Write a sequence for this structure.
């Protein structure tokens, strides 16, 4: 809104005609009908309403004219950028600087404003479904929340210069496992009258760097074997994943799910997807804690972690028992390489990116829907045809899984690079990091750039020292102005450095209220940050 402020300042007559919006939510509300009826609201959010829409966002002439004589404006937008990391090329979502005419900036903004309201609704809806399922988990059911953490980069406390450039990176897959308590394992028995849900963190460690559907299937097989070991035999497995194409959400992932789910011993698997770019948080925090403890152990000379097996042994010997009551235990598994059957391929599925719920059947067919539903008692009881939320969820529709007879080595197009939380950090990102001070739950930090590897030892403006080779993020802290109102003010002249794995949550523009060097959170966002910190 900085450009609009300048326009209105130069044209006082326009000040009563055009709004200055303080945040994205105010602007979105201007483009949808003001109604409390969810069904009508959904029609508005999907931009199918004849009354509301982006046309309600009025633009002065300076913002919509394609005049080449207008001065350029500086702005930023997220784009996927191809980067080289050693011999590999990766696709990373980054904040890219732009210098264009105002018309181009506002045209792009209107373009994303058309889809943002429904994206925001879907984000909230999918998260609500997970919470509702955990509150009402049927017996003989199990829930997993899955994601990859940033790879662990092995290093040595006394490494020589040549070793500094030849680091082994270890893949770390994180699964949050929710199930009913078993007396023999947990010391308490869950019952219908007294349900007790156990949360466990399940980690698969490997030097295999191919994060594909074969890796995630191996994880699911390992989880199934663990449940069998403790004599917990769920009939239905509910998965919640991000939308990464190569790992969970592609034609080959769906084909693999339909043809192999019975091997895991379940009657059915229901795979749910969080909205794009909203699956990060607690899983990254759990993985970050593992890497942070490993780093500290190496730095203090207590351990030597040179490969995946070393990391597994360290975790298995030291980190199985969490300190908090939120997690019952941590389970670690190690595999050197993932077995793959690269000759198995399947035909494409229409509108696959819109699908947020997939349910297996017994005849190589999947039932898919736009959104999940667990807030309806009929869906929790598997009476899906009687769903009370079908207007939001969308109608379930069958998808036939058809094998493709080909010996070619197909490559899945990665429309979503599966970025971890650290991949999304760039200049100006506001992150929540683990607080070293016992008086604070977390610190907020405005970053100066992407995470980096320190070429030399360094001490920040707060007197904290970091060794050469440490993976860190630099920036400035926000000081707490009011704990009651969750308001903070930037401390801009005192450089702060944190280990990258201390980052737990990224605050987006829609989650904060900004004014110059100050920001303010609402209570819901504050609680989301605290939830991401529940990792010890």
């Amino acid at each position: 809104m900085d450009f609009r402020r300048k326009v209105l300042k130069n044209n006082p007559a326009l000040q009563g005609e055009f709004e200055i919006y303080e945040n994205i939510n105010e602007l979105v509300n201007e483009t949808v009908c003001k109604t409390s009826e969810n069904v009508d609201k959904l029609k508005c959010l999907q931009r199918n309403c004849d009354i509301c829409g982006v046309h309600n966002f009025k633009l002065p002439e300076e913002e919509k004219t394609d005049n080449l004589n207008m001065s350029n404006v500086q702005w930023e937008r997220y784009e996927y950028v191809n980067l080289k990391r050693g011999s590999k090329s990766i696709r990373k979502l980054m904040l890219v600087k732009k210098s264009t005419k105002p018309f181009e900036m506002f045209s792009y903004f209107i373009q994303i404003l058309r889809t943002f309201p429904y994206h925001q609704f879907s984000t909230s809806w999918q998260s609500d479904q997970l919470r509702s399922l955990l509150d009402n988990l049927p017996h003989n059911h199990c829930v997993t929340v899955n994601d990859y953490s940033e790879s662990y980069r092995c290093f040595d406390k006394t490494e020589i210069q040549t070793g500094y450039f030849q680091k082994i990176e270890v893949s770390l897959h994180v699964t949050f496992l929710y199930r009913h308590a078993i007396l023999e394992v947990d010391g308490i028995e869950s019952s219908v009258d007294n349900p007790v849900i156990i949360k466990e963190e399940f980690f698969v460690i490997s030097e295999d760097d191919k994060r594909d559907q074969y890796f995630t299937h191996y994880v699911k097989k390992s989880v199934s074997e663990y449940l069998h070991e403790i004599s917990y035999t769920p009939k239905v497995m509910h998965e919640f994943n991000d939308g990464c194409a190569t790992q969970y959400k592609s034609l080959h992932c769906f084909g693999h799910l339909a043809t192999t789910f019975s091997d895991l011993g379940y009657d059915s698997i229901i795979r749910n997807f969080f909205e794009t770019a909203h699956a990060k948080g607690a899983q990254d925090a759990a993985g970050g804690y593992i890497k942070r403890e490993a780093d500290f152990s190496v730095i203090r000379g207590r351990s030597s972690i040179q490969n995946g097996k070393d990391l597994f042994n360290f975790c298995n010997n030291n980190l199985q028992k969490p300190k908090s009551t939120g997690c019952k235990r941590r389970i670690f598994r190690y595999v050197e390489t993932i077995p793959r059957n690269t000759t198995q391929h399947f035909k494409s599925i229409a509108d696959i990116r819109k699908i947020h719920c997939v349910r297996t059947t017994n005849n190589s067919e999947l039932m898919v829907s736009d959104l999940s539903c667990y807030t309806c008692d009929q869906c929790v009881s598997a009476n899906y045809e009687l769903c009370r939320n079908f207007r939001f969820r969308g109608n379930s529709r069958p998808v036939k899984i058809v094998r493709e007879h080909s010996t070619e080595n197909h490559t899945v197009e990665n429309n979503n690079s599966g970025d971890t939380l650290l991949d999304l950090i760039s200049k100006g990102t506001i992150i929540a990091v683990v607080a070293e001070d016992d008086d604070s739950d977390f610190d907020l930090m405005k970053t100066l750039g992407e995470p980096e590897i320190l070429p030399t030892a360094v001490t920040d403006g707060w007197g904290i020292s970091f060794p050469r080779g440490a993976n860190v993020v630099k920036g400035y802290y926000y000081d707490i102005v009011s704990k009651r109102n969750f308001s903070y003010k930037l401390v801009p002249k005192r450089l702060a450095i944190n280990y990258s794995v201390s980052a737990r949550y990224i605050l987006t523009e829609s989650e904060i209220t900004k004014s110059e060097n100050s920001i303010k959170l609402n209570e819901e966002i504050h609680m989301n940050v605290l939830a991401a910190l529940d990792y010890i």
